[in-house]
Structure formats: C-alpha cells, structure tokens
Amino acid sequence: MQSPARQMAGAAGSSYVDALNAPQRAAVEALDGPVLVLAGAGTGKTRVLTTRLAHLLMTRRAWPSQILAVTFTNKAAREMRDRVSQLTGAPTEGWWMGTFHALAARILRRHADLVGLNSNFTILDTDDQLRLLKQLLEAESVDAKRWPARLILGVIERWKDRGLTPDRLKPEDAGDVAGGRMLALYRGYQERLRTLNACDFGDLLLHNLTLLQGHADVLAEYHRRFRYLLVDEYQDTNVAQYLWLRLLAQGHRNICCVGDDDQSIYGWRGAEVGNILRFESDFPGAQVIRLERNYRSTGHILGAASGLIAHNRGRLGKTLYTDDPAGEPVLVRSVWDGEEEARWVGGEIEALHAKGVSLNEIAILVRAGFQMREFEERLLTLGVPYRVVGGPRFYERMEIRDAMAYLRVIAQPADDLAFERIVNVPKRGLGAKAVQTLHLTARGGQAGAAPRQPLYEAALDLAQTDELAGRARTGLRALMTDFERWRGAVATTPHADLARRVLDESGYTAMWQADKSPEAQGRLENLKELVAAMEEFETLAGFLEHVSLVMDASDGSAGNAEMATLMTLHAAKGLEFAHVFLPGWEEGVFPNQRALDETGVAGLEEERRLAYVGLTRSKHRAYVISAANRRIHGQWQSSLPSRFVEELPETHVDVQADPGLGTGGGAMETPSAFAWQPPRQTGFMRRGPVLEGVAYAVADRPKPAVPFAPGDRVFHQKFGYGRVVTVDADKLTVDFDHTGEKKVIDSFVKPADKAG
Among 232, 340, 658, 746, which one carries the catalytic annotation? Predict the structure, then answer.
C-alpha cells in the first residue's frame, strides 16, 4: 500500500508548479533555510504560499504534522486549507494551520499547567475583560471616571502585544496612568485571570512566550515537531507574534515569511513594519525573493503606485509591472468642495454602469468614516444601490440613531420608540424596572392595556411623583427638564446649534469622550458630521423628514442585486475592483493630520502605504479626487492637494480640470454657520504649480485685499491668530499661536486687525 505522501505525489505530479512564473516557482522550491517572499499587491502571494505548502508534502520533505502554517484571519486559514486540499487531494483536518491565536491556544492547552492554568481554561471576550477590570478598579479605589476600564484594558493589551509580562515592566513604564497604579492593576488582572482559570486573547501568545522561553524541554519538543514554518502577511505581525515565530524557527531555521512591506498599514493596532524590514538580519543567510509581476492592475496604475511608494525610505524595495496593456492613466481631478466631489463621483458611477460595468466592480475608498455621508446621500439620491463594508450605513450607526432619537423627541414628543431609546443613554439610573414603571404609567396603571398617553407625558408625571426610586427619579426629572428647555429653544435657536447643545447638555458627547475604545473617536467625528449635515436644511423638521426618506430608500432588501461598495482604505486591503474612486486626497485628510502629529515620519510613511494600497485595489482605472474646500465637522477649511498627488509620476496620470468648478450646487449656502468664508468662484481654471512634473488643476481663488509679507499678523478661521513666516505665491507658511506652523492659502486669512 502506498504512503499518503506517495499517493498525493502520484495524484498531482508536478503540474502544480508548471503554471507559476519564475520568481513564484523560486519561492515555492526554496525549501531550505529562511526565505522572505516580498509579494507585491496582486502578484499571487496566496498561490505561492499554498503551493509551497503542497510542494513540501509532494516532495516528502515533511508530513502535515511537521508544518506550521500561520495566517492572520480565519478566512485566510480556510482559503489555505481549501487550496492545499485541492492541490494534494488530501484532507487537512488536524493540520497545524490557522491563525496566530488559534495555534497558540492549541499549544497552550497542551501545557497549561506550566503557566498556572488548567487545560480547559476559558478565553474571555471584551465584555468579560471590562467587567473584571471594573471590579479591580473598585477594589483598588481607582477613579473609574478618570481612568475608565477601557483605557486600562488598552494599556494592558499594548503591553501584551509587545510580549511584556508584569515582571518585565518597571513602574515608570506606566507613567501616571491610574494614579501610578497601572502596573499593580496589570498584576492583579493577571492573578484574577489565573484564579478564574481564564485568559484573554493577548495571553494566548504571552503565555506561549513564557512556555517557550522558560521551559527548554517544551521549546525542544516544538523544534522537533515543526520542520517548516510558513507565515502569511508577515508585515502585520506585532512584537509578541514576532518573538513567538523566532523562537519556533530556531530549530530547523526553515521559515518562509510572505508579506509586503509596502502594504503595512496597521501600525495603529500594534503591527511593526520593522519585523519584515530586519528579516535578513534576524535570519542570516536568508533568501529574499521578490514577486513583482502583477496580475491585477494596468500598467498605468502600477506605475503611479510604484512612483508614489518610492518616496518611502523605510522599505526593502521592489517595482511592480505587468505584461498586460498600460490601460488608462490614473485620473486626477480637483473639485470645489465635498458636495461637488460626491456629485461628480456619483455621475461617473452612473456613466460606468450605463456602459455595462457591474456595480459590484466599483468602489469608493475613503480615508475616514466621516467622508462617507455625502457619498451615501448622493448614491441614494441617484438610486444607485450600494453597500458599506466594515460597518453600518451612516444613518444606521448607533451614535447617529441615538442623536436622531433626541431630535425626534424634541420635534415630536409622542415618538415613544425614540424616547425609550435614549431615556437611559447615557446612563441616568433608569434601568429595566424604571422603564417598566414608565410604560405602566402610560397605560393608566393597567398592565397590558392600550397606552393612554405617550411615554414623554408619562415621564413628565413620574418626574413629579415618588413612584421611582431616588436616583431614577432624579435622572428622569433632569432629563425632562432638559427636554422642555430644548423644545422651548426650537423657535429661537438654529437647529444645528440646538443639536450641539442637546448632545453636550445630555451628556452624550461626554459619554463618548470618556470611552477609550478605538471606535469612540470615530463616533465623535460622526456626530460632528451629523450636525454639519443639518446646516444644509432650513429647519429641524425638514432635516428629520430628509433622514426618514433616506432610511426608507435604503431599507429595501437588495438580495443578490449589484451594489457599489463604500468603505475605508484600511478595510479594502486584500480586495480588488475594476474601478476605484479615491476621494479626499488633501493635506490633513490624507495624509491624516493626526497620524502626522502623533508619529511624524513613521506616520507619513504609513499613510503613503495606505495610498499605495488604495491605488492597487483597482484593476482597470483609479480616480483620485481632491476638493479645494472641505467642511469637516461643520467647519470650512481651505484644502491643499495631498502631497501624494504631487508624488504621482506625470507619465501615469491624467490631470483633468473641472470646467464647472464652483458653478452652483455647492454647500456654501449657510454663511451664518461661521464668521467668514471664501466666496464661490466662477469662470476659468488655472494650472497650479508644476511639482515633480504633475500640473495640478485648482480653482482661481480670491486675492487678498492687501498682499501679505513675512512678519504680518493674520487670522485664520480654523487656526486662529498667527504670524506669517514665508510667502510662496498664493501660499503662506504661518506660525499660529496655538497650532504651530501650517501652510494655508492667502485668500483664507485676514489681517489680524480686521479679524473682528
């Protein structure tokens, strides 16, 4: 009887490598020693990884149990299993193939006693972790309002991602977090987990490091077991994952890492691009094989993307190419503002669809979530079906629904659904029992009876009686006092200003400001975008009606119908579309100003990698758009084209001016929203300065009444007062009193003595 390996070899022969190009085949057949496969976007990295795994089996270099294959997602692990099974004709159950966490958990359960756990330990989810930390904060008398459990958990997770146990930290490593008691909280948290026979996701790798570093016999066991290691998306590994892999690879040194340093875009969640950059020094004698032939995009797209990413210094270097036709150049277009941007993109999508392009092959990729609203509303207006990937649609998001519920109650107090949604959001001591009492009061004291009055009216009554307990009554009374005040202000207060007041005075904004989860900042930005959207409508009632119509238009079930895709650039990694729209390529938006402020050059290079990822999602054509003006969270600001636009090679772009720039239909109809704004422009276009061969079209802007000179004191609507440092044509470098040096356009500043 033939062995399984011989059966597999006989079934597939060598045909599985025949279709590979030369570098791909080299990556598959380089089985001895450390290998780094630099796989550019669209170069067939998954094919190489799975074929290499199959090749190890076909050539009888290893049995399935002797190979450790690591991925980042369960989806990638399933895809790898399916492909290897197809190539080898053998089932893959029981193989050491999966995510970092799944494989680490499998090892940990075999040796749990060595780290103080039983093999049936529980893996806690985020809710359980927060509940446990809240108990510890209370026991340690730590002010949970100043130091929320989410903030404490975030610090602990960052330490675990770096492979740091409490005994490897010093008190100064925690700074003044939790009043200097952060390290004690970490120790207490870990001790409590052991008492519960539990661990969190970070512990899976952290305990593995303890096992492998502290028990030579355990490490030797896995050195004997794993003759070959294969790692996908190596550029996304954090420190703990990196250390785990290095320990396991010390035995046979047959480690193959596949990744792309140019697509390392997750630094904000702990990924270390340095892991892939120092592979050759970590593993002396390593082979580096570059996969540069792209099978996805046209020559112009690849030329533009390669020219852009070449500006990064922290990279190993490669240049993508294709043997297919060059296709159409990347279209670079400027528009007047965000509304015109959405209108133009919507029109282009309609035109593409009319030419037979499936909506499923069209994507809009934004840098930040707040950019989505205008595109959503435009697509809904046009009747273009779309999906939001990675999150709900704008008006379906939790924070937007909460804010809208407050506004609906102000406009229509009889809206029981809206009132019940926010009666205890943020928490006011009105739990399930209080809400039950509220419903009972609305029914005239008869359970099961039809409501005799709206919940709002019942709440007004309950706020004045003693049916509710002290905290619940106090919370309800304060809420109803607020609602009556807000309703009284409708006639005299601009509705956008009223919305800001409601969100602030209700405590809703403060609730998200205190929330230290990664999503909290995005929720705050969405709330600002909601208020900004309200300024486009004359009344609160008009805005609420608009939202109702929008929601009604998006409620239909799409089934298997075609839909355009709207998503963030981070969520788009690994996907591809025929046509990709890349809006918002402006300084401050993309590259993101916060990334630049917080991490400097490293942040800029990660933003550039994100732009590279965006361009290389496109198969046939990419469209880069920037706006001369943009309203961000209700504040207008002049916008300079992103430096990334200037870095696109001239030979691969088609710069198109908008002949109708600034001719009506804009979003500048609300001058009362701020003290000063640039007037809309009409007429001809001029060419901006030629930067690295790219002439970028911008609108003629109003000239300042008095030319500025270095040393002049000026005022800017967003940045406040400052002093001019340099003057370059119509661009000023201004050292602002509170925000430091910024580049601005001269027509957007005023002499300081005329700012009032």
Answer: 232
